[in-house]
Amino acid sequence: MDKCSRCKTEEKPLFRLSNSNVLVCSSCFMNYYEKKVKNTVLKYGMLNGVRKLALAVSGGKDSMALARVFLEVFPSIKFTVIHLNLGIPDYSDECQEIVEKFCKENSIELLLYDLKKHNGYSIYDFGNIKSKKRVCGVCGTVKRYLMNKIAYENGFDTIATGHNLDDIVEMLFNLYINGSIEELVRIKPVSSSMHSKIVRKIKPLIETMDKEDLYYAISRNLSYVSSECPLVEGSGMVDRKKLILKIEEEIPSFKYLLLKAHIKRFIPLLEEYVLPPTLRECEDCGMPSVNTVCSFCKLSSKILRLVENN
Ligand code: SF4
Ligand code: ZN
């Protein structure tokens, strides 16, 4: 049987440490991963001044790893889990069950939000209707808005999300290709609040890779939704992630180097030249918006019209 390169325990399977040929056992991998996330959190001062913390947990491997690593690494920091049920048949119910079970087992407060019940439509309703706008884009807008609103209305000052290095590099790739400078400037480990109704966001997994979150979930024996969202098919996001993995095969550490260059070199320059948007309050919901009506309210009324006419 193979031996762990660190503690020499014989174990199967062994996990490969990122961008190296070092194979370690599950226990050494957990130590490595937890240290890595802790270092990221401390390096960017993610928990500095936090009074009330919420974790956005979908039930996928990344956010489940995030919740577990916080329990292990910051045992004295209390947090609440926020979970959105997006109304995708079978998939959303499985996600919710996993999150509910985790919170119950670990005595964590859980805030559940059911999109269909509160807003009259689900992400599945939208995915079922022919529309030019891609369902993942719509889903992203809905999740960002609701997470912020729920956190704001419940008095949280910080929300941690499970975005990892692969997610961030895919976003950067997409935004650079489209020249979306205003959005690029907002991709960072800590996004401070720009308005009293916008909750500060942190990304503790910004330096861990998809496969590391997966290895951690396996090593810690975590339950997570293993099937893919049925609506992801045909999404450009999946193709971009595959392309990035191919680049990484040719240029080791490509993802990390791109992230580092973005944070250290581009963000300071972009922040000098890209002025933060002037925000007012949406006429419909009262949340911050660039226009008279915010993009969530516009999108919601459009989806409701589509659902009614279908
Ligand atoms: Fe939403 Fe797309 Fe993710 Fe499914 S794959 S949960 S539709 S963003
Ligand atoms: Zn609104």
Globally, the shape reads: globular
User: What separation lies between the terminal Cα atoms?
Assistant: 59 Å
- DSSP helical segment count: 12
Largest sheet: 6 strands, mixed
Rg estimate, integer Å: 20 Å
What name goes with the CATH superfamily? HUPs
**Total number of distinct structural domains:** 1
**SS content category:** alpha/beta
According to DSSP, the number of beta strands is: 10
CATH architecture: 3-Layer(aba) Sandwich
Strand percentage lies at: 5-15%
Low-confidence stretches: none
Order of helices and strands: EEHEHEHEHHHEHHEEHHHEEH
Unique ligands: iron/sulfur cluster, zinc ion
CATH class label: Alpha Beta
Search tags:
single chain, 310 residues, alpha/beta, Rossmann fold, six-stranded mixed sheet, two-stranded antiparallel ribbon, 12 helices, globular, binds iron/sulfur cluster, binds zinc ion
Fold and architecture overview:
Helix content is 50%, strand content 11%. It has 310 residues and is an alpha/beta fold. It has one domain (27-276): HUPs (Rossmann fold, 3-Layer(aba) Sandwich), CATH 3.40.50. The strands form 3 sheets. A 6-stranded mixed sheet has the order 5-4-3-6-8-7, sandwiched between helices. The chain has a two-stranded antiparallel sheet with strand order 1-2. A hairpin with a 6-residue loop joins strand 9 and strand 10. Iron/sulfur cluster is lined by residues 86, 123, 135-136, 139-140, 229, 231-232.
Lay out the secondary structure.
Elements: E1 15-16, E2 23-24, H1 26-43, E3 53-56, H2 61-73, E4 79-85, H3 91-105, E5 109-114, H4 115-119, H5 123-128, H6 135-153, E6 158-160, H7 165-178, H8 181-184, E7 190-191, E8 200-202, H9 210-219, H10 236-250, H11 254-273, E9 280-281, E10 288-289, H12 295-309
Parallel strand pairs: 3-4, 3-6, 4-5, 6-8
Antiparallel strand pairs: 1-2, 7-8, 9-10
Helix pairs in contact: 1-9, 2-9, 7-10, 7-11
Bound molecules: iron/sulfur cluster (SF4) and zinc ion.
